[in-house]
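Long-time lurker, first post. I've been practising inverse folding by hand and with some scripts of my own, and I keep getting stuck on stretches where the structure tokens seem ambiguous. Below is the full token string for one chain I'm working on. Before anyone asks, I'm not after the true native sequence, just a reasonable design that respects the backbone. If someone could post their per-position residues I'd love to compare against what I wrote down in my notebook.
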């Protein structure tokens, strides 16, 4: 069957343009966790759909939030003869968004979804009132140093109310696991001098002192997470939502089918490519799963992939959304605030690690498809690249503008607004099907509002975590204690960090996990001489495992729902498929050239990336049991598993950078890797020659 411009007609999977549009509508209009670019890692919970006056209140609050952000970033002076302090701006955003947490997210599994209990209305009013009260006093607090010198009782009362509602908002948006991890640390300054705390002993505060510091200083509630949200995240959320609501999902998916559909295991490779393209623009894992997964999972199942494996591939491919620049997940903006660098620097640092991640997934899928003899999709059933580009050419210009603004002009707070304006103008001029109306604008604001609410609920709550450690002054002493435990051994510290990240990631969202470790572990890693950017990216990557690791595994569970596979089984399959992510962080933390840091990063990065790519090829071959250019390792008989283990070990050694904290030079490490891989491959080839000819062929 021939394909029409912009449409995908695949009889094998019954995938049509209408299906793509329906999936986009589901993502953008129905699922609050799929808000493009939102804190997609949050646990799935029951949510309410606001209607009537409450819906219009959310729309109005969202419009005010976006306008306030534009006013602040572009210095437009909406408030005539009044210069708004950053802290006043932050509290105004909190007042506009945080109260809706208690309307959108029910307090329990038994709470009604069709009406608001009295206590939710009370929490809404209390949150709004306390935020406005604190905003009205924050200017005087800054002038008189109330966060240190002691604030008046009415301000303390307002701060206690804010503290309480923040913890409840954190529970509703992030779940009990996140609340139980954050709340003890928020009250920890009240008991910081207790002897049993050991290395966590610090300066103790009274309840009034702790409250004042939490709600009035720029280190806690108004600290790094909320600053990141207010300065840069809002703009990128707006851009991502506008992109999806102008039909970008269909464009990117058709491009992926046109380029990758005919390859061996083509449906899975389309999944990886499409999710990568969508993720680069949305930064949202769940919107990726629900948009691309609705198309690709049925095709993968009909191509021969079992349901749980197809869902796992989509979950892992969509998880890359928070890794892939130029638009990354919320955690990337928090990293920029922690490091006090531009977001463009973080996006540049993520390029090679993200490329290695997707390359690893691609190789995993290719090896799996070869081992199970899964074919691609006939070219006649796929769209043509030229037709797809003709239908959505203007997306290329919008993306180009965003990248130029980010990387050349270094205007990350302005870039998404310029890109959104260009996108909407071009969409109104050249697309009849996706032109916006007044109803579209209202829906656009509603979708963004639901995402803003979820993000503020989690980021503001996690901000108190940072404030608690800042208040007690234990960070430097804790770093020294960790160094003492590890004996200044960087490898042991990295192993401790990775293990802690994995454990925290089992119950926390990526952003919360990153904030924990950026406070507790990153200073120790930096003290042993590791590059700051590489350290924070290392923590970020390990914390990201929560998206595909049970019991959180939000990406895996969402994909399992589409595939009709068991949720937990899909979660464990996702860990297996995405196992390459366990290796990649060690590569770039050992040599920061892979995150484009150092004296001559670009030249060094090319060579290291090549070695890492080749090493990844062997790692994936060992994991899947089919080595490209060698064949199916089942034909080696009883030596299959020993050879697979040696391929993983050899690939890891080959990809590992030498020098720096490594006791071996780059030449020695590379030689060791080849010394392991060469005999392994030769033995495998020799054993295969004794068996039946390999009909699967070499790698696609």
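-- Answer (accepted) --
I ran through it position by position. Result:
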């Amino acid at each position: 069957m021939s394909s029409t411009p912009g449409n995908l007609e695949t009889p094998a999977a019954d995938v049509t343009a209408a299906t793509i549009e329906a999936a986009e509508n589901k993502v953008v209009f129905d699922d609050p966790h799929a808000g493009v670019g939102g804190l997609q890692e949050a646990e799935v919970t029951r949510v309410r759909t606001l209607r009537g006056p409450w819906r219009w209140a959310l729309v109005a609050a969202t419009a005010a939030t976006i306008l306030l952000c534009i006013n602040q970033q572009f210095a437009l002076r909406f408030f005539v003869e009044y210069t708004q302090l950053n802290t006043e701006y932050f509290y105004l955003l909190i007042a506009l968004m945080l109260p809706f947490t208690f309307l959108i997210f029910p307090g329990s599994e038994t709470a009604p979804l069709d009406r608001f209990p009295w206590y939710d209305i009370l929490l809404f009013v209390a949150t709004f009132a306390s935020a406005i009260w604190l905003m009205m006093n924050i200017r005087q607090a800054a002038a008189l140093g109330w966060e240190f010198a002691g604030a008046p009782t009415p301000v303390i009362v307002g701060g206690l109310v804010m503290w309480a509602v923040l913890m409840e908002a954190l529970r509703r948006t992030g779940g009990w696991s996140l609340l139980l991890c954050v709340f003890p640390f928020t009250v920890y300054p009240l008991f910081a001098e207790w002897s049993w705390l050991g290395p966590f002993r610090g300066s103790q505060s009274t309840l009034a002192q702790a409250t004042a510091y939490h709600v009035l200083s720029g280190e806690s509630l108004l600290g790094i997470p909320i600053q990141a949200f207010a300065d840069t995240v809002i703009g990128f959320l707006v851009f991502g939502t506008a992109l999806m609501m102008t039909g970008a999902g269909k464009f990117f998916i058709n491009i992926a089918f046109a380029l990758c559909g005919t390859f061996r295991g083509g449906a899975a490779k389309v999944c990886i490519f499409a999710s990568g393209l969508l993720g680069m623009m949305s930064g949202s894992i769940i919107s990726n799963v629900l948009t691309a997964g609705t198309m690709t999972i049925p095709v993968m199942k009909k191509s021969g992939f079992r349901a749980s494996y197809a869902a796992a591939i989509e979950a892992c491919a969509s998880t890359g959304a928070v890794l892939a620049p130029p638009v990354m997940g919320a955690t990337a903006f928090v990293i920029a605030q922690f490091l006090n660098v531009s977001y463009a620097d973080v996006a540049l640092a993520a390029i090679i690690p993200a490329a290695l991640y997707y390359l690893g997934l691609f190789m995993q899928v290719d090896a799996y498809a070869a081992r199970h003899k899964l074919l691609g999709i006939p070219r006649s059933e796929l769209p043509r690249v030229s037709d797809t580009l003709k239908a959505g050419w203007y997306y290329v210009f919008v993306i180009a503008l965003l990248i130029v603004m980010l990387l050349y002009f270094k205007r990350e707070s302005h870039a998404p607004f310029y890109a959104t304006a260009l996108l909407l103008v071009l969409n109104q001029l050249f697309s009849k099907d996706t032109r916006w109306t007044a109803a579209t604008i209202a829906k656009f604001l509603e979708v963004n509002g639901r995402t803003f609410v979820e993000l503020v609920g989690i980021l503001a709550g996690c901000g108190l975590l940072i404030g608690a450690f800042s208040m007690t002054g234990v960070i430097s002493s804790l770093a020294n204690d960790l160094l003492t435990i590890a004996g200044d051994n960087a490898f042991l510290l990295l192993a401790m960090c990775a293990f802690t990240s994995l454990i925290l990631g089992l119950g926390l969202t990526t952003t919360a996990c990153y904030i924990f470790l950026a406070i507790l572990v990153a200073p120790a890693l930096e003290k042993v001489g590791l590059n700051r950017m590489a350290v924070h990216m290392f923590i970020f990557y390990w914390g990201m495992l929560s998206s595909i690791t049970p019991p959180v595994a939000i990406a895996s569970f969402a994909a399992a729902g589409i595939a009709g596979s068991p949720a937990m089984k899909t979660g464990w399959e996702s860990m297996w498929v995405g196992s390459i992510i366990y290796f990649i962080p060690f590569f770039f933390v050992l040599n920061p050239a892979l995150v484009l840091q150092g004296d001559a990063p670009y030249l060094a990065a090319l060579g290291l990336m090549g070695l890492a790519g080749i090493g990844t090829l062997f790692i994936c071959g060992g994991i899947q049991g089919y080595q490209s250019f060698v064949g199916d390792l089942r034909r080696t008989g009883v030596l299959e598993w020993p050879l697979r283990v040696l391929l993983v070990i050899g690939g890891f050694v080959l990809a590992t950078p030498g020098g720096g904290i490594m006791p071996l030079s780059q030449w020695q490490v590379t030689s060791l890797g080849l010394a392991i891989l060469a005999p392994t491959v030769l033995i495998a080839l020799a054993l295969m020659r004794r068996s039946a000819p390999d009909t699967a062929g070499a790698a696609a």
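A couple of notes from the structure itself: Residues 1-45, 694-700 have pLDDT under 50 and may be disordered. Strands lie at 626-627, 631-632. Happy to go over any region you disagree with.
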